[in-house]
Fold this protein.
Amino acid sequence: MIELRNLVKRYGSHLAVDHLNLTIEEGKIYGFLGPNGAGKSTTMNMMTGYLSPTEGEIIINGHDILEEPEEAKKCIGYLPEQPPVYMDMTVTEYLNFCAGLKNVPKDKRGAQIESVIHMTRLDGVEGRLIHNLSKGYRQRVGLAQAILGFPPIIILDEPTVGLDPKQIIEIRDLIRQLSDKHLVILSSHILSEVQEICDQIIIISHGKLIANDSADHLEAHLRGSAVLRLVLQADAEDTEDLLNLVSDITIQQLTENDDDTTTALVEMEPGTDPRADIFFAFARAKKPILEMTIQTASLEEVFLELTEGDSAAPAVPEADTAAPEPEETSEEGGTD
């Protein structure tokens, strides 16, 4: 659906996007991550045609965005970080205006506007001036205009900024719903949100692609072999003896605790699951296992490991194939 070929963007001597190559396929929700200044918004603005690249090609659904801009842009619905709304219009007036810009046929505009209003939970405020809506509801209006026309590609830059927790859950559900028929790309500083709803995660740093894979695969790549954490009602010596009876594990650390228990960290061989063997080994010795958990790298750890440092982080092989505080919003979409 989207191909970026050797994409470069320079601002004077500053290289914002550095020879970026990326293929984005349909049928997935992509999370677009990177530190501030990494080139995320610049890349998204070039994908949508708001900025021209210094070098390289952008192919949108088979159309070169520089050679066939109208055909390429017809395929995209875009919500910038700051929603492009006109404050002196009502919600319905604004969406009707956007429908005209998108060349939605007049006989279909009413039905489409009604549909996106319902999808974005704007029912009840469609007749209000946008100026009188809370920030969260203005964000919904911006999302509604991105969906209008039902383009095959939806690009969302920080789509949940300014929303309260209930609204965030509703927008996440909407994004999942959209992914049934649309390719969805979203950027967010809320890593838990990206991990929860995205199928594929793209991480860039210093304008370079450093990861393009699922969250699970990225975590597994960085963690290496899985680590099992055990809390056992046994001393360290007995714990070591019993663990040595189990194959496919390596003891990393044993710590005796003040409550006569021992905490053990053991590394499991890739592709194995020795938990049942560990259970039976300690059960036969009548040494209870109080806790048994597999430790995995969080997306936050993955992100920091890939992006921290002054120079570009080493790339993770591609797969085969703190957010701003939300402003208060009224329950019915009233004024701030």
About this structure: The CA atoms of residues 9 and 174 lie 32 Å apart. The two ends are 39 Å apart (CA to CA). The longest strand covers residues 14-24. Confidence is low (pLDDT under 50) at residues 310-336.
